[in-house]
Amino acid sequence: MNRPSGTYDVVFIGGGGASYPGAFELAKRGHRVLVVDDKGVLGGVCLYAGCVPSKALRRWALAVRDAEVFGNAKVDPDDIWRRAVEAKEGVQKEVFGQLDWLARQLGESLDFVKGWASIRDERNVVVRTDEGEFNVTTKFIHVGAGSVDVIPPGLQGAELALTSDDLYAYGRSLRDLPDSMVIVGAGYVGVETAVLLSMFKVKVTLVEMMDRPLPNMPMDISRSVLRGLQRLGVAVHLGARASSIERKGSSKVLRAVKRDGSTLELEADEVMLAVGRRPRLEGYGLEN
Known about the structure:
- By secondary structure, the chain is an alpha/beta fold.
- It folds into two domains: about 1-145, FAD/NAD(P)-binding domain, CATH 3.50.50; about 150-275, FAD/NAD(P)-binding domain.
- The protein is built from seven helices and 15 strands.
- The strands form four sheets. The chain has a six-stranded mixed sheet with strand order 3-2-1-6-5-4, covered by helices on one side. Strands 10-9-8-14 form a four-stranded parallel sheet, with helices on one face. It has a three-stranded antiparallel sheet with strand order 11-12-13, with no helix packed on it.
- Helix 1 links the parallel strand 1 (about 5-15) and strand 2 (about 35).
- The longest helix is centred in the first third of the chain and has 28 residues, at about 75-105.
């Protein structure tokens, strides 16, 4: 549906993993529940642009590696990538459908709306949809709106960069692989993407401002990951802070400042930002 109505016991802002399981349980117990999500599908970032699509693509990447290592076969990584993206989209669509079916089984106890919800006060929520703006009354409000990519403050030319959404998000994944990519950030998203793309024969360079990859993990894990990246042919630059991104013909150039003050200049077909994620809080009226 796309038209909320009446009074609810609970309004859930966001349809991801922090929201829909609780919404389902409350609806099963007879409470009237409204879930509002701007993407119009349940499952949140994990399913829409995160762990599920990345693992689906990784399965195909491993197949490329195994075909070459164990089968001594020649494969076209670009063709395999396009097939992998189609398969990834199929997995996402299937799970979206499953969650939608579960929601519909709850009948009138649960309404799910594609739209944007903002809090007017502690008992009223404004829901904006393609059909108009609606005010709903509720006893409780739950905010589980997920997260968004962090864009480094002061990074000139940040708008030229890709984010993980451009690889993993439903309906947005690149259909043609670049020959080379610089990834800014060696946290779990950056490292996983570097490994994935290198298996698809993309020349990957990883730039991290800290002194090791996965800086929030134990040191022995960072060391093991660094060795694994180097075995895959990923160039890793540590202790370098990205300062700017510029176009150079059909390529892009990332400049980063190293700890000794020298400048690192890296050219590639694409630059991707993977410096972390932050809570998605703007625009929901939390100040009210």
